[in-house]
Amino acid sequence: MFTPSILTILGVIMYLRAGWVTGQVGALGAIAIVMLAHLITIATGLSVSSIATNRTVGAGGAYNIISRSLGAPAGAAIGIPLFLAQALSVAFYVVGFTESIILFCKGIDIELSRTACTLISSVSLAALVVLSGRSAALAIKAQYIIMGAIVLSLVAMFTGGSDKPPETIDWFGQGTESFSVVFAVFFPAVTGIMAGVGMSGDLKNPRTDLPRGTMAAILVGMVVYVALPLWLASNVSSDELVANHYIVWDLATIPALIFIGVWGATLSSALGSILTAPRTLQALANDGLVPRLFGRGRGEANEPILGLVATFVLAQAAVLLGSLDIIAPILTMFFLATYGLTNLACGLERWAASPSFRPAYQLPAIISLLGALACFYVMSIIHLGAMIVAMVICAGIFLVVEHRNLDTTFGDARHGIWSALVRSALFRLRRASFHPGNWRPNLVVLGGDPQDRPWLLHFGSSIVQDRGIVSYFHLLEGDVRELAESRKTLLATMEGAFSERVPSVFFRVEIVDELYRGVVIVAQSYGVGSLEANAIMLGWPTNRSNYDRYGAMLRDLVDLDRSLFLVRFDPERRLGNRKRIHIWWGGLKGNGGLMLLLAYLLTASDKWRGAEVDVITVVEGESAKEAAEQSIGEVLRAAHLDAKPKVLLRGKRTIPKIMREQSVEADLAILGIGLPEPEEAAAPFFQRIELMLAELPTTIVVHSARNFAGEPVLFDAEEPPA
User: Fold this and answer.
1) pLDDT given for residue 473 in this prediction
2) Which of 66, 84, 151 is nearest to 311 (CA)?
3) How far is CA 336 from CA 126, 183, 619, in A?
4) Contact 368, 47 (CB under 8 A)
5) Assessment of whether the complete model's pTM goes beyond 0.90
6) What is the fold of 438-714?
7) Domain spans in the chain, listed from the N-terminal domain onward
């Protein structure tokens, strides 16, 4: 782990751009850039270490970490750009190698044309691809020889110096480029920490090797990069550092060692990226996030040959750009996004406190989250437009994968993260004081098999939408031990049949000893903390022999402060065209507010949108008619409801007859009722209501709970208009 990481860290930037960075922003500015970059990489390294000591980091490195922590969509959103960044970094190092060849040729009076330089880069790239394709093990062994060459080049650098050093060190620089531009050019120097992480699938013991090697490489690289600006600024003026990209050769005691070092560093870094990028693509393919043909491998080591070809094509395209300063900022954006999400993944895992996240190295969540924040902040100051483009690309990939709804699951942390958010929200909700104006429908629908009563599911989802919670219950009457398996099967069937059609509904199947008592138990026990059911939806009773038990159940529900929606479905007219809703307004039972709110919620849903709402009441005489029209009109205007008041004279007609005459063309009627007193027999009560509903369309019978204070929900003032 240490060797591939440090070889990538001590690479082309150290030899070819460290002097330019120091000249642009001065010794102090260069050290600030080094420390800021290492704050990000140290936080990322610690996050990687924490995750690696909790579970084995598989093939794909950073992609594996993110996908197994935040899920397949987030993994794809960063894994695909990460592969592109790794492929581009191959070109970055190869172009750096070519720049050193240009300098070498100048020393022997040979001037290379642009075409010749492109040819050198292309041939070098092809040779590296062939080497890695033939034997990854051989390529890894070659890195130890290169490591020795880099150490010798560092000795040659720091033991050298200038015969005429500047009188004072320029701490702040004389360059024309901004701090953010210089940071963007420098940052790829420290991205080598992912070289080892990307090879994690080939490690014998990644849980220990990965964190130790990664952190050691980061710290050694930081020491070198802090010392380098001080050495350069103490030997050369800022103007010379900006103008001469090859100042290191001029200062070294043995310039030939610098050539050997830079050739070794650039080629080994390119080789490391060539080994890493195809494995990232292979991991993506194995998870079904890119075409699976890229997951095919060769030999016992499963070498990703097609991934290697794809890496070569992308790197060759980037080689044609031919400039480090063009490629570097692109790499910086992609790597910062990767580091940011890696830190975010670790921070959220730690914050969610999932029992499955038990790393040997316990990193406080705040460190990882601050590391993520630093990554995104640095992206914004480097180039806000480029950051937005990068985020849009990542978000687009995320949405595409999310929309595909893959069956791929990694046991990722999303469930734990959402659970932690819900838990936190529930505690905050408990501490918050409730105001009636904040009332939302948390509806429990008890309808048996939704295949038999789909209208209950329709009304429940249409009323609640995204304003509250709707849960559909199917109660099984019997013994738990006998029905436990049936319960599981029924729940799976319900979710499979309806979850796609009504994704806002939670489905439950419960076993109860007795049906009517079971309804009451569900109504009073379902929920967590202050987030409990406040409204119950049931079908209208059709079996007259059950009237008494049904009436007792309704009284219990009202005593529990649950509002009631009782749906009487007309099988002939069904829901009609969903264009006309009639509210029958009595004004004596305190149900008016809930009926108006019910009509508003329905007309705000997709299926009832645009429906006309009539608020109808019946009075005895002309004088009462005018007063009722004015009163209802004021109520509707104050409630901002698009409904028409309609006041009818009773004359000699019965109320049921008037209702039948007026609502014959309606698609839905809404009617408020009181409930019989405990000492009153339920059967006569239900028979009276049945007579009233006999020829009406599908009707929702409403009874408002005491805890529903409709006025603050409907009106700006605490009290409705008189």
Assistant:
1) 93
2) 84
3) 28, 12, 72
4) yes
5) no
6) Rossmann fold (3.40.50)
7) 2-156+174-230+264-404, 438-714
